[in-house]
Amino acid sequence: MAEETNIEQSKSKPMTDKELEELLRKSEQNASYPDVPFDEFTVPTPEEWVEACNELLKGKPFDKMMYTKNYEGITFDPIYTLRKWKDILPTDDYPGMGDFLRGSTVNGYVHEPWGIAQACDLTEPQENNELLKFEISKGSTVYHVRVDKATLAGVDVKDAEKPGDKGVSLTTVEDMHTMLDGLDLEKIPFMLYTGEASTRLLAMMVAALKAGGKKVEKLKGIVGADPIGELIKNGKTSESLDALYDQMAAAIKWAKKNAPGLRTVFVRSTVFSLGGAESVQEVAYTYAVAVEYVRQMMKRGLDIHDISQAIAFEFNQGANFFMEIAKLRAARQIWANIMKEFGTEEADRASFVHGRPASFTKTVIDPYVNMLRNCTQSFSSVVGGVNTYENEPFDELIRKGDTFSRRIARNIHIMLQEEFGMQAPIDQAGGSWAVEALTKQITEKIWAKFQEVEAAGGVIAALKDGSIQKGIADILAARFKALELRKDRAVGVNMYPNMTEEPLDPRPENTEEIKKILSANVDKYLADVDAKETDAKLAAVKAAGADALIDAEADAFTAGATIGQVAKAAAKEACCCEVAVEPIAEHHWTEKFEALRRDTEAYIAKTGKNVEVFLANMGPIPQHKARADFSTSFLQVGEFNVHLNNGFQDDEGKPNSRWEKAAAALKAGIDEAGTPYDCAVICSTDATYPEDVPGMAPLLKAANPTMKLFLAGAPAKGMEETYRNAGVDDFISVAANCFDILKDLQKRKGMIE
């Protein structure tokens, strides 16, 4: 009877994480897996599978077509089987323990799903406050604030170059109070990236919360800094790294004492991701930064437990779905082992990961496709096991999100949680032969890359010698080249362009007007401030050591100091050994094609003219259609005018009269005035080209001697010289460099120099 009671209680009351962990540890000692026969199925051999594929490939080489190598140097197999990968399956690993490969918590998302942390970046504190509340009311579970560049740098709004450029503008404690007003910070986590140091914005928050009678000790989430990340982004820091490390240590100590649920170190991979890094580089370099922080904090006497609990990571999810899942699983495993080497207890080896879609993979052209990119990247992040996630609006590269784009972004979280059942099972990818194989492979590569940085003397030394920058630049160049050759496909940009697309309104903010309004609000606030009291508190900031800095800055904000005044008072003189490195510039992968399109659009707007393309389609539609469609899409990537036709055919009794018809149509030009075409493309089949090209190409060239003549398709073996001698200038095919061809046509037209 007692046993039945316990069973009923267990049904009504779910196990705690601790209880489940103990149960799993016991089961690990007694685990046995029965052999499940599949006698009713005939399992094909690998040889049979390859043979079946070869039939479908129709002569194309299996090894070339069915194996895919990615930027990480990992080759995807065409099929993953248990026989090949069974030895690496994590049959004795459990989530929330060990090396945390299978998840950072024992229950995964079952009891608590990932935090929905949609960034709120509206310029004015009041409107951002309203947005924060709106986001929570519509499903977000984390208050995530993004501040503008001036606020990050400690610059008052009146001195800001462009207030509100990347987020909310905060100059005084009144601004912070306005933004935080009515937020339930005791129940809902708060997230804020603070730039080089967390002390200043943390102090402003503390001052605002205390003024509002709120309990600072209840604050939880991330208010974190990444000074090396800012060094890499900008090439230098405003203070010496030692001074910034001192502030980092002070923030960790302060949080432990005053707000133990708050992480104050936010190590972000964004600077590497935006530079074009592949996944191995992204994780390895991010961990190299984090390890530098750990060592610097230990030098300053901090306990490894406190350091581990202060660190949060941000990883950017790219477009390679399975690789991104493997990346997150590998990252947890590697960090657990790094922290083990630093002497942490098991519980301190779990990493806290905030995820976001990689802005590098987004496009300005045909931006609605970004919704699909965001969907797959969110999906891979959740399967990979992030703790919190922000899904950027699809129009992030163009403008700040609006109600529609924010809703679409937020609803991807909601659908994954409530409609797709992604809160269970725990470790959704666990046991997948493909994902486990990729996880093992990328783990080994990340660890090797991390060791390279360690061997170079650590991340600062590797940044100084430029090896990190060069490695990322090489991958960026490879990505750009793959897009030019259309080996990588950006839908709507270098493939399948939408010629009817209307560009999104960027809705630029009136910076000068905003600056006036916000500056007036600051002036109004300062009018009631006791200047002597403010000066006294600023003097205290200047005299304060790192450990007393946050409290001193909070007092100064309370006394009415602005963020610029506090930043100036707290700044220490740069030391003689201040670090400067080559910065890693921000990019997104389609920027070169988008610039090309803008050149076309600008020329059209200025002159009303465009590159005009004539399709010399030979024979009936079935004969020329495939290559005519390919050539049209290829040239419309540059937003050029492609003039279509149904093909030129011989008149009865007049063989090869199709050539004269095509030449006559080309010579007639694009309109009644005879405006000439800028190029022509012969479209037909390999079987007809040996007859058509030598006979027709000279006629087309004679009809328009200044144009460029293309042949659609790569030339058959031994025929290129013949076709070029006939007048063909170049070839439009899957092997052609789309970008170079389009740029050349722009130059010939006079669009660009």
TrEMBL record:
<feature type="domain" description="Methylmalonyl-CoA mutase alpha/beta chain catalytic">
    <location>
        <begin position="70"/>
        <end position="572"/>
    </location>
</feature>
<dbReference type="InterPro" id="IPR006099">
    <property type="entry name" value="MeMalonylCoA_mutase_a/b_cat"/>
</dbReference>
<dbReference type="GO" id="GO:0031419">
    <property type="term" value="F:cobalamin binding"/>
</dbReference>
<dbReference type="GO" id="GO:0046872">
    <property type="term" value="F:metal ion binding"/>
</dbReference>
<feature type="compositionally biased region" description="Basic and acidic residues">
    <location>
        <begin position="10"/>
        <end position="28"/>
    </location>
</feature>
<keyword id="KW-0846">Cobalamin</keyword>
<protein>
    <submittedName>
        <fullName>Methylmalonyl-CoA mutase</fullName>
    </submittedName>
</protein>
<comment type="similarity">
    <text>Belongs to the methylmalonyl-CoA mutase family.</text>
</comment>
<dbReference type="InterPro" id="IPR016176">
    <property type="entry name" value="Cbl-dep_enz_cat"/>
</dbReference>
<keyword id="KW-0170">Cobalt</keyword>
<feature type="region of interest" description="Disordered">
    <location>
        <begin position="1"/>
        <end position="38"/>
    </location>
</feature>
<dbReference type="GO" id="GO:0019678">
    <property type="term" value="P:propionate metabolic process, methylmalonyl pathway"/>
</dbReference>
<dbReference type="GO" id="GO:0004494">
    <property type="term" value="F:methylmalonyl-CoA mutase activity"/>
</dbReference>
<keyword id="KW-0413">Isomerase</keyword>
<dbReference type="GO" id="GO:0005737">
    <property type="term" value="C:cytoplasm"/>
</dbReference>
<dbReference type="Pfam" id="PF01642">
    <property type="entry name" value="MM_CoA_mutase"/>
</dbReference>
<dbReference type="InterPro" id="IPR036724">
    <property type="entry name" value="Cobalamin-bd_sf"/>
</dbReference>
